[in-house]
Amino acid sequence: MLRSPQVRNGVVETPSPSHFHSSVSVHKLRRFNILVVVFRFASFCFSLASAIFMFTNSRRGNDLPQWHHFDAFRFVAVAGAIVALYSLFEVGASVWEISRGATVFPEVVQVWFDFGHDQVFAYLLLSAESAGTSLARTLREMDTCTINNAFCVQSDISIAFGFAGFMFLGFSSLLSGFRVQVMSNETLKTSNSSHVIEENFYYPTIIYTSSTIYPISVGLYNITIFLKIS
């Protein structure tokens, strides 16, 4: 984030740019932010669609299954709604950064806010869709889907949209993790101690890589299971 020059004692001082913005050219930074907007908007659309399909998955009749009769399907609906709201906020924050050239919060806070919440909500969505997949498998082994196949089909669609939302949120998490790595490395490079740089240069890389690749791998495994039962 760039700040306006200040005049002190008759001398114009130009503050240094922020860590991430100083490491990436303006053109590359704009393309990076546009890619973030695309991923976050896709996560919003799929998560919202997942929540809508599950919330509307009700059939008239006392003997027919309803989505709110099952804990796992309630989890899918609520998780999709929460992630949709979060993704919508992040879309707005990314558009703000593109248009204003500055983050909504101070950049250090914004970068860690994005990375941390991406991790939390990615795991939330993954847990919900995994629970929904397990329940969908159980219902197909019973007579529920035979009696009311439309209910099972709509549940499958909702879960599929949820997995798609998770994947795009995972991609967004990779990008936010990249920003954490760049910012951390820039901080280490400006340190006066070469010993600190040597010991900690790869630490941010290990943290962000392990915390983003693992949930995506687990998500792909659960998607494979879901495709087998659908």
From TrEMBL:
GO terms for cellular component: plasma membrane. The keyword Transferase does not apply. It is a multi-pass membrane protein. It is found in: Cell membrane. Residues 31-167 form the Casparian strip membrane protein domain. The chain crosses the membrane at residues 32-55, 75-96, 159-181, 201-227. The keyword Transit peptide does not apply. It comes from the Eukaryota. Homodimer and heterodimers. This is CASP-like protein. It comes from Anisodus tanguticus. The lineage of its organism: Eukaryota, Viridiplantae, Streptophyta, Embryophyta, Tracheophyta.
